[in-house]
Amino acid sequence: MRKSLLFVVALFFAGQASAQTLSDLFAGNAKLTFLGLDFTQAKFIGRLGFVDPVAIKNQHITSWNDLIEYEPKKFSLQDAFKLKPEMYQSKVADMVKLNESVDVKGNITEDEYQITEDQVKKSVSKYSLSVKDGIGIVYVVESLNKKAEKLFAWVTFIDLKSKKVLYTERVEGSAGGFGFRNYWAGGVYKINKAIGSKYYKQWSKTLK
């Protein structure tokens, strides 16, 4: 009985030691994986801006995620988080798979819309992730708002070992670019830039 108790205690402390914190990330001691964009709770606001839901579902949602890997000079978060190359990677395949369930047509609306932190956490709890170590960052997309010409998303940090949400914050990025894909990819780019120019400094001081 005593040996069993000691074994359980040892496992507990081993788990505690291996858990990754945001302090580790901001100190450059935790590997960050950019998991991509989760559209499972997203609304598409302004019907005239979303006239081809089939193309959005079957083409653009995947393309917006793929840009994170295919165009790292524009969409990498390595510099934003001041990380060495070996401490950063992007892996969007899990979000691409997750987004196959998105009902784009049913989520096109004229109404304003917001999600909550609890909804973000519920979404993350359902993830099936292939990366198990370090910290993940995912953009849980709230809306593509054509009326406001902005993309709204919850920038969410996850302990990949436990899938625990370490922190999440609603951030917006102004859309812009030639063509439908690039227009909304511009919103992702602006969120990335805002992290580097504003949020990183705030988070590194306040999140532990």
Word description of this protein:
- With 208 residues, this protein is an alpha/beta fold.
- Helices cover 41% and strands 23% of the residues.
- Strands 1, 2, 3, 4, 5, 6 and 7 form a 7-stranded mixed β-sheet that branches.
- A hairpin with a 4-residue loop joins strand 6 and strand 7.
- Helix 3 packs across helix 7.
- It is globular, with a radius of gyration of 18 Å.
- The chain starts with a helix and ends with a helix.
- 35% of the residues are buried.
Descriptive key words:
208 residues; 23% strand; alpha/beta; 41% helix
SSE arrangement:
Layout: H1 2-18, H2 22-26, E1 32-38, E2 43-45, H3 53-70, H4 72-75, E3 88-90, H5 93-98, E4 108-109, H6 117-125, E5 135-145, E6 150-159, E7 164-174, H7 180-206
